[in-house]
Amino acid sequence: xxxxxxxxxxxxxxxxxxxxxxxxxxxxxxxxxxxxxxxxxxxxxxxxxxxxxxxxxxxxxxxxxxxxxxxxxxxxxxxxxxxxxxxxxxxxxxxxxxxxxxxxxxxxxxxxxxxxxxxxxxxxxxxxxxxxxxxxxxxxxxxxxxxxxxxxxxxxxxxxxxxxxxxxxxxxxxxxxxxxxxxxxxxxxxxxxxxxxxxxxxxxxxxxxxxxxxxxxxxxxxxxxxxxxxxxxxxxxxxxxxxxxxxxxxxxxxxxxxxxxxxxxxxxxxxxxxxxxxxxxxxxxxxxxxxxxxxxxxxxxxxxxxxxxxxxxxxxxxxxxxxxxxxxxxxxxxxxxxxxxxxxxxxxxxxxxxxxxxxxxxxxxxxxxxxxxxxxxxxxxxxxxxxxxxxxxxxxxxxxxxxxxxxxxxxxxxxxxxxxxxxxxxxxxxxxxxxxxxxxxxxxxxxxxxxxxxxxxxxxxxxxxxxxxxxxxxxxxxxxxxxxxxxxxxxxxxxxxxxxxxxxxxxxxxxxxxxxxxxxxxxxxxxxxxxxxxxxxxxxxxxxxxxxxxxxxxx
Length: 555
Prior knowledge:
- By secondary structure, the chain is of the alpha+beta class.
- The chain folds into three domains: 1-169, no CATH class; 176-372, no CATH class; 392-549, no CATH class.
- It is built from 16 helices and 20 strands.
- Strands 3, 4, 5, 6, 7 and 10 form a six-stranded mixed beta sheet that branches. A five-stranded mixed beta sheet has the order 16-17-14-11-19, with helices on one face. Strands 15-18-13-12-20 form a five-stranded mixed beta sheet, with no helix packed on it.
- α1 packs antiparallel against α2 (26-44), α4 (59-91) runs antiparallel to α6 and α11 crosses α12 (312-322).
- The two termini are 27 Å apart.
């Protein structure tokens, strides 16, 4: 068995145990990891390897591999058990009970955590002493290990800081209040959809409480948010929809920070918010609620309708508008969200919590949920783990942003299917180049337009049943977009800026059974180390439809 395979199995053994959240699996997983790293190290130090290590020309490369496997085995044998002991101690404690988080098992391990981190860093620093290899494969391996060392050290420092600040985050110094903003991509806004209801999450000495959800109409009377000059120009001063930026429109920012700051300017005007400091916001859509229902159990509405882990998103993004009144629709979102919160606080345990976090992080990658904290260290953490949404900002992980705002007041977002095809254009070297086709198709059948209410098909004249979208295309950070072509009823995207970031904007009218397709070329930064991705306004499915048509190697 190859050395590389042994090391991969070592990592996989522990990763599987940690992902399961089952503490009783950790000792066996640790033993498996140690066995694999020991075998890998023994292999690279056997007679043949030691003999080849004496050869001129390649001996230095063999020594490099031997030192790497020795370091990895030393970490597995001496350092990993320290982390495993802490993990088993924490996970075997009662961390959650009656909606309260017990942080003592975590904070009491701080000194042990620092000690383990110091031991790990000492081992990783040994990588710098490895002489520079000459064989490309070995050189790449050593370079990857060295680059990972810096990342690990930074991550360990960040986690230490989080553990120290945990009491503050959980309200042990003073209560923390977050607004939970329920949005519906059925009426698209850049970061999600129209805000239908707003609740609160309060953290007070480890106890978390979800307050009542208020409909957007209860907030509208307190006016509009303060907006920047570009937002004023692009969305308030220019139509077809001259947006008010009252609470309903506050997801129409490409960053969660923009939404949070805008909402705070309204929160302070309300009777319930003027004397309560707002510490941040959490944005969630019906796909998140459906995930919570799947995790905590079915919900029965007052009229007897049963929502489960498969039908909740459809109900909240479509059925509630086609079969119920407008007022009922806003109320039901609050009812479902509150029921989920109650079920969560009564049933949550460490294993369920770990599973929930993994699912939320996955959903955050598709903008179904996001959060922003006005506490800078916590916000930095949220951004690092991908939970605070931003426009593309990472040259090494090239991403294009495609963000939509519905200009026909309607719930047509449910009927618009969006898909992307990304074709790698093979080149001799960096930067990487791609051709992208982005398609929007209105699935609403023409005959159904007259049978659905205006609240679903739209109130804008000449656009009944049409999705009328302002679309912003952001290039990858450090790269560019070029050569736009359009098929269907849409304008060719033109360059503009939003808060100093260059983007291209277009207006598309997608009538029932019609399609609009944008085609364009993308050039990444020379620093790109992964294939091109798309960050976009969330759809009604958990994952967006993105197809890669070839497999040219990146990096």
